[in-house]
Structure formats: C-alpha cells, structure tokens
C-alpha cells in the first residue's frame, strides 16, 4: 500500500508473489515428481507456478503455492493449490487444498480445509469461451500480442468462489508507451488496472482498494522486507 511519500520505505507491505513459467510433463505439478499422473494420457504441456505470502492482521501469515498444467492441445489441465494460515494464537496452521483436473469439457475439483472437510465440485463448461488456469496467467501477454483493442470476455474457474465465472478484460493502447488492461474478475466487482510497456512487461497493477503490485527482484524484495522486520521464512 503506497505511503504519502511514495517511497518503498514509506509503503506498507501487504504481500509478495513469485511466478515461474516452464514446459514439461504433467507429473511436475505433483509434490513428488515421480508420482503417477492423474487422469488423462497427455504428459507434455505448459506449467505455471505461483508462490505467495500475504500478511494479515495480528501477525497472521498466509502462504500458498499453486502449480497449474495445460496440455499443448489445451484439452487437458490439472492443478494443485495449497494454502497454510499461521497465527501467533494457534500452534498449528490452518491448511487448505484444491485439486483440479479437466479433460475436454469434463471437470472435477476437490477442496479441503481445516474444520471444513472435503468437498467435490463438478462444474459444467457450457461455452467455447472457457480458458484454463494457465491461460488466465498468460492472458495479458496473449491479448497484447494479438493487438486487439476491445473488451474481451472469458469463463474460468475461480478458486475460493468454487465455480466457473465470467471475467472481462478491456485492452487499450497508450500511444507508443505501452498498454493498459482493465480486468473485472466477476460481475459487479471493481476492476483492477494493469499497465505494461510496449514489449508487454508489467509496470504496475492498481487494485480497487488503492494497493499496488509492482515487479521487483528477489534481492530487492528481501532487502525491503528484512529492513521492515517482516517474516521471510
């Protein structure tokens, strides 16, 4: 959250995330790389991984790791999302998980959380406008590459909402300086605005509550968080 002076030292740190993109077999999304693949025969595709930490109230820390796979023909996807909420008042973390898999238009998702048990979901994909979790992560670059300045609509699974929802993205070119994409993740919610340079590199993302995501390096992130006494382990 930016401070009145606009400096890193003056800002309130809320969260960080690390994103990695690679190609490889579906088994790479498993905790055990030698584990058997789940459902479906296709093994090669695109993999998106995001590790994140969010600071909550009262020294609460929420850690998450999501690993997502999409086959090269887009017919299969799978993902594993795990979260852990740690607080000073509880000795054991509250944990949750989401395991999803899709083949064609058939999708099955299992969610589990401390104190809530196991829930199974089988959402129905009714439109050709559905995109996978990997494509959601890559969507800004795909839209910029295609250079189509208009409003786009897609259906995608929303973790936490436990259902497939419509999202809208409005792509605008800012003269020769770069791009602006306004994203509304669900109907009735304020959009987040993200700016990119002419090559598609992210500059900043502005959320509706005034907070801002900005790109940085691992070394700079560690320097800022350690200087403010924030948890990095």
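^ structure tokens above, recovered residues below v
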């Amino acid at each position: 959250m930016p401070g009145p002076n606009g400096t890193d030292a003056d800002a309130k740190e809320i969260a960080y995330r690390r994103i990695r993109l690679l190609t490889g077999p579906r088994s790479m999304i498993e905790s055990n790389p030698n584990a058997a693949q789940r459902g479906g025969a296709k093994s090669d595709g695109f993999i998106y991984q995001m590790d994140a930490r969010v600071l909550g109230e009262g020294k609460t820390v929420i850690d998450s790791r999501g690993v997502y796979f999409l086959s090269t023909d887009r017919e299969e996807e799978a993902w594993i999302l795990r979260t852990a909420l740690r607080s000073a008042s509880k000795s054991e973390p509250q944990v949750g998980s989401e395991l999803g898999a899709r083949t064609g238009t058939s999708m099955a998702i299992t969610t589990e959380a401390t104190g809530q048990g196991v829930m199974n979901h089988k959402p129905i994909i009714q439109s050709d406008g559905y995109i996978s979790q990997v494509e959601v992560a890559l969507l800004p670059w795909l839209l910029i590459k295609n250079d189509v300045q208009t409003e786009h609509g897609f259906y995608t699974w929303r973790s936490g909402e436990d259902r497939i929802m419509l999202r809208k993205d409005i792509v605008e070119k800012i003269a020769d300086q770069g791009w602006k994409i306004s994203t509304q993740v669900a109907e009735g919610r304020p959009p987040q605005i993200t700016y990119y340079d002419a090559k598609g590199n992210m500059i900043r993302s502005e959320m509706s509550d005034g907070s801002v995501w900005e790109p940085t390096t691992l070394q700079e992130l560690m320097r800022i968080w350690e200087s403010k006494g924030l948890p990095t382990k």
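The helical segments are 133-146, 218-227.
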